[in-house]
Write a structure and sequence with these properties.
alpha/beta, Jelly Rolls, Rossmann fold, 2 domains
Amino acid sequence: MKTKRFLAMICALALSAGMLTSCGSDDSSASSSKADGGSSVTDSIVQDSSEEEKDLGNTVALTAENVKLVGRTWLSDDTLWLALSGAGVEFEYTGKKLDITIAGDSVATSGSADNQARVAIYVDGERVIDEMIDSAEETFTAFESAEAKTVNVKIIKLSECAMSTCGIKAITVAEGETIKPAPKKTHTIEFIGDSITCGYGVDDEVKEHHFSTKTEDVTKAYAYKTAQALDADYSMFSISGYGIISGYTNGDEPVSAQTIPQYYESLGFSYGAFASTTTPHSLEWDFKSFEPEVIVINLGTNDASYTKAYTDRRDHYKQAYIDFLKQIRKNNPNATIFCTLGTMDNTLCQRMAEAAAEYSAETGDDKVYYVLFDLQNGAVDGYAADWHPTEATHQKSADKLVAEIKTVMGW
């Protein structure tokens, strides 16, 4: 087990006796949901329904009773497992020292370094830990102080689900120290997408470079930025290379195994497994756990590699998109849906808009809109790995989406 002390330790050493400072602050967002199929917090350390802080014992399993769950998570044997980009927890900790142990899956111990999970830990809005999980367990000192202090702590999986997963082990808390859920934000949003939503390659602005979880950072992508700007708790369901009817292909046949609709009602998809035993796609998601006011879909870029200019294939995409809207509506009866496309490829934008219109006409559902993103401009904003959008391009997409959501929703 490795113990790593980063900015938290530096901050603590800089303190003189009897004085405390935080490492920083901002208004970064997160989202809430309930763990599906998980065990409950240890009986001796449960908080009561009034949400008043209690003195906790030695071990705290992370549940919705003591942390705000971010995105789709799964609690098993007191470890909270994360798969999808942006999944994690947020809570308020009061104490002197907080150690957090992250569990790796089989990829951490025997897989490629380019597929390992990337995790960030924030204290009062400042990223104090940013690590690739390359062992079965790694322990990080997130916060340490000479005197007890209350800080906001956020743990976020920066990389996507397909290549690797990771878990947050139960947290050890000293006598008299407490944790409680971070406050809920004003709004709730779900994002459904592909590599663009995942933040593929955003930390590698060399377009000829290829995929690595080391250079994925969901917090620099349009979706996370949109949630922050709207003060929204979020959930994400995104997988690189996936589409509505086909994943990315250089050939002439659809990659039907890489489609989002078949996995949308699960906890995600991964070639690995939680604790190397349970796959995210074998776990059914409880849609009552997180009920978004807004759902944003950004799918079609990978489909375009298959549909090309063939009319019948584009029509297939449109009909499958309509079917997916029905699936989304079945599980999210009250959400307003925004269909988006165009950042990397805009050839299917017309079919996407037609799908939204035809779905509304057929069902009478008038809570569906579409937003056409501007095609990325490499001459101005550059390109990230494999010609993906840079953070500058993501910011432009977020700005446009935020404006549209505010107009429609009145936020």
